[in-house]
């Protein structure tokens, strides 16, 4: 994953973007993957999860290049796999990073991001990469015992004193927030301060993991990039931020601005970021320019913050 150092440049393709949908490409939301089957006037996306298929949506071109209307492909419902029929969809191409993605806009907010990648990758592996990069880093527990997650390797304090491989437990053929190290299994919950590890057990009959007693409460060791450095390292999708509480989402979103020295007026944000050695506030916020990836991350996190609790899952 490459860090982004470009100035924000929202580049909507002039003329038809149909050529960007054709070819050996897959389109992914984070937990769903699609292929495009259709014509320039009737773009249809068919796909599914790691467990099942049947997910689909359509794009109807508008008079404005790069702007589409979302369609459901189902006469009896306005449900589409990435939003609701009638939502506005922007096709965006960032030439400097060779990124192609769709922003689904519902009620004025970016409600989903669907990004393009080569078809030699698969959904399962992409989900694992997303989970690993969110966990990545050093931690310390309340007793001073250090823990390390380094992508596919981990050191779990005194339980596993040397670097060892771990894998993710699955539910419905999809990697879940369970790490399996040898005969030990742990449910992990990423928090604002770090990560909570719970003992976990698996019921093969129901294909379900149960959370047990707390094993360790870990504090994240900030290396100078903030609590959530991954928001500056990759394209953020809705599934990556869905499980966080709204207080954490607010810090996560504003941390993206804080890395650039945004001068906060809210007392709680000013107090929080002023405690970080890496935070250097600027005098004029208008000088701050977010990268395309950073702006997309801000938009999708803000949308999740504005989603009612009963509609979050």
Would you kindly provide a brief summary of this structure?
With 313 residues, the chain is an alpha+beta fold. 18% of the residues lie in helices and 39% in strands.
How would you sum up this structure, described in words?
This protein is an alpha+beta fold. It has 3 domains: 18-121, Calycin beta-barrel core domain (Lipocalin, Beta Barrel); 124-220; 229-311, Up-down Bundle (Methane Monooxygenase Hydroxylase, Chain G, domain 1), CATH 1.20.58. Helix content is 18%, strand content 39%. The chain contains 6 helices and 19 strands. The protein has helices at 18-21, 123-135, 238-241, 246-258, 267-274, 292-305, and strands at 25-28, 33-39, 42-48, 53-61, 67-71, 79-80, 83-84, 88-94, 99-106, 109-118, 137-140, 146-150, 153-156, 160-165, 167-171, 174-181, 184-190, 194-203, 208-220. The strands form 3 sheets. A 9-stranded antiparallel β-sheet has the order 14-13-12-11-19-18-17-16-15, covered by helices on one side. It has an 8-stranded antiparallel beta barrel with strand order 1-2-3-4-5-8-9-10. Helix 4 runs antiparallel to helix 6 (292-305). The radius of gyration is 21 Å and the shape is globular.
How would you describe this structure in keywords?
Lipocalin; globular; 18% helix; 3 domains; 313 residues; eight-stranded antiparallel barrel; disordered N terminus; Methane Monooxygenase Hydroxylase, Chain G, domain 1; alpha+beta
């Amino acid at each position: 994953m490459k860090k982004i150092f470009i100035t924000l440049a929202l580049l909507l393709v002039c003329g038809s973007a149909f050529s960007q949908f054709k070819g050996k490409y897959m389109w992914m939301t984070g937990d769903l993957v699609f292929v495009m089957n259709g014509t320039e006037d009737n773009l249809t996306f068919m796909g599914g999860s790691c467990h099942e298929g049947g997910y689909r949506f359509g794009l109807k071109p508008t008079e404005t290049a790069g702007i589409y209307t979302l369609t459901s492909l189902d006469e009896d419902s306005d449900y589409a796999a990435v939003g609701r029929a009638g939502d506005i969809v922007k096709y965006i191409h960032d030439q400097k990073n060779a990124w192609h993605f769709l922003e689904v806009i519902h009620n004025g907010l970016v409600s989903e991001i669907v990004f393009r990648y080569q078809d030699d990758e698969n959904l399962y592996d992409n989900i694992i990469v997303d989970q690993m990069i969110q966990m990545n880093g050093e931690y310390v527990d309340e007793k001073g015992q250090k823990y390390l997650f380094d992508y596919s390797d981990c050191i779990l304090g005194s339980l596993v004193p040397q670097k060892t491989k771990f894998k993710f437990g699955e539910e419905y053929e999809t990697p879940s927030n369970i790490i399996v190290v040898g005969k030990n299994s742990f449910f992990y919950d990423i928090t604002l301060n770090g990560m909570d590890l719970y003992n976990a057990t698996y019921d093969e009959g129901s294909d379900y993991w149960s959370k047990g007693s707390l094993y360790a409460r870990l504090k994240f060791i900030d290396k100078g990039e903030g609590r959530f450095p991954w928001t500056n390292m990759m394209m953020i999708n809705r599934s990556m931020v869905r499980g966080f509480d709204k207080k954490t989402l607010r810090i996560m979103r504003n941390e993206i601005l804080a890395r650039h020295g945004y001068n906060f007026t809210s007392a709680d944000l000013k107090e929080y970021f002023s405690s970080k050695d890496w935070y250097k506030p600027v005098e004029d916020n208008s000088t701050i320019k977010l990268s395309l990836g950073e702006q997309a991350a801000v938009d999708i996190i803000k949308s999740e913050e504005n989603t009612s609790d009963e509609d979050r899952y």
